[in-house]
Amino acid sequence: MALKTLSAKNAAALDEDLMSTGAFSIDQLMELAGLSVSQAVYRLHPPQKGKNILIACGPGNNGGDGLVAARHLWHYGYRPTIYYPKQSKNELYQRLATQLKNLDIPFTDDFSSALDQSDHVVDAIFGFSFSGEVREPFPSVIRALESTKVPVTSVDAPSSWNIESGPPSSGPGKDFQPAALISLTAPKPLVKLFKGRHFIGGRFVSPEIARKYDLDIPEYDGLDQVVETGAGGGKL
After folding, report:
1. Cβ–Cβ under 8 Å, residues 138 and 159
2. Strands 197-201 and 79-83, how do they pair?
3. From CA 77, how far away is CA 59, in angstroms rounded?
4. Does residue 40 contact residue 153 with C-beta atoms inside 8 Å?
5. Helix (H, G, I), strand (E, B) or coil at 227
6. What pLDDT digit, counting tens, does each position of 116-165 carry?
């Protein structure tokens, strides 16, 4: 049986509920999301398979999740590199970037060269709020992700995909099928078109909020912040 999905509109409303009635701050939610991403990467690609992790970050919350994940991955023993061409001036994102610089984690402007030296890529460019056309400098990045043999894990959505309808009919991302996807809070409708390994990271949703949005809360094992589901969002 497939897990229930969360539309883009409801995902935004749920985030608002988490920060109002749920009493979470945006910092907390981003920390929990990034921690979930880091655990999914560790499960997919343990350090003995290669420690060089390239994290491509967009200008919004998805990119922030990627910055948090990078910090955790460094502490797990990986060697992350950050591609963050549209750095936000928001204080939260500035602090997240500074935390990485304090660990001497490198930032690069050359995505292609960094990709050639990477063992795994985290796609944290665009999330559930993305719509419209992919703007510079990201078209070439997404084309590189489409064609690379390096495994890619996407955060909440493969970048360029419409949250409801999946990959675009043309242009960058048309043939983008990352190796793995981690859905934050709950799967989005696009998961029905996704063919790789699928994880959910949402071990912070209260039963009350889950009931309001008619969500399935998966069973998380032990200390895990992620749980793997089958292709298309079905339960394993």
Report:
1. yes
2. unpaired
3. 26
4. yes
5. strand
6. 999 999 999 998 777 677 888 999 999 999 999 999 999 999 999 999 99
CB of 53 closer than 8 Å to CB of 38: no
Crossing angle for the helix pair 61-76 and 26-44, to the nearest 10 degrees: 50
Q: If you average pLDDT over residues 165-179, what whole number do you get?
A: 93
Instruction: Evaluate whether 156 touches 86 at the Cβ level (below 8 Å).
Output: no
Tokens of 222: 């032990």
- What is this structure's pTM? 0.95
Q: In whole angstroms, what is the distance from residue 221 CA to residue 126 CA?
A: 29
What is the residue type of 4?
K
Residue 24 in tokens: 């979470």
Nearest partner of 189 among 23, 5, 14, 3, judged by Cα: 5
Name residue, tokens 């999905």. 5
Q: State both tokens at 66.
A: 């990627």
Judged by DSSP in three states, 108 sits in: strand
